[in-house]
Amino acid sequence: MHLNTKLNKPVLNKTMSSYARKISRRHAVTQAGVLVGAALAVGSQPTRAAQSKRAGANAHGGFRFCLNTATIRGQKLGIVKEIEVVAKAGYHAIEPWVAAIETYQKEGGSLPDLKRRIADLGITVESAIGFPQWLAEDDAKRAQGLERAKFEMDLIAKIGGKRLAAPPVGATDLPKLELAKAAERYRALLEAGDQIGVVPQLELWGFSKNLNQLGEGACVAIATGHPKACVLADIFHLYKGGSAFSGLRLLSRDAIQVLHINDYPADPPREKVDDSYRVFPGDGVAPVPEILRGLQDHGGQTVLSLETFNRKYWEMDALEVARVGLEKMKSAVSKAVAG
Questions:
Q1: Contact 291/233 with Cβ under 8 angstroms?
Q2: Could you tell me the pTM of the whole model?
Q3: For burial by CB atoms within 10 Å, which of 104, 176, 267, 280 has the most?
């Protein structure tokens, strides 16, 4: 998630020192700009593509634009074509579903080849969506869920992925769990992720009986005492669960690394609305610019991952959906920055 381009500082500093002895300070600054420009121009085409996307992120308030493939899931493209759509549409990153990666592998696909394809297109895998029952109350189910989570994180790591969504699967219909117990289970998941190099994000589900509010998720993450604990928030789920959007301002950029961005209509009401009503940001009644402004105040580079399950979008051309979605995201960010 670091957007600053890395240069060869020892060589650059030595060169600048030499120039400083011979020319004026103003000229030195000019030459430094030339050197930096040359350094940025060196490298393969994929590197230049990645640098261009990073520049785009800086131009939009530091946010990085990502597509959660649920938004085009109904087109049933497969992971390879989904990656191509994301790159062609102009996103910085993709958030695939683990099931699609599994299917690709079962059909004979190579994970190293997939990782290479992603890198060549200049995008990154900021997160991925899976459903291991890591929070289940039954010990056997929870143990199986943890093993499944390890398997999913390993798949993600092999294609260069950074994070895994960890929603409260296995506890959506349970009576309220003690938050200390949930924290213990989330820490076990985090420690498994440490061994693999992937960070599981505590995802909130507004319809769940457990971890359906931002305050609960933040409490559980804090109680783990783990340095990589974080919360994956979603505009729709925050609304569905009754969380105040202003609460996002209380969490640091490390606590909210990815936000599922979307919108919802005024009708049906909160208690009846479901995932299928999600729309592009700005097409509903959510205060999206205000939400983004609160995240921008953190000073970090939050990944905005567009996640909808709208059947109307699934009937459209996938590339068109991706492009329109990106335009809507950029518009929302521009309003947040301007405000």
A1: no
A2: 0.83
A3: 280
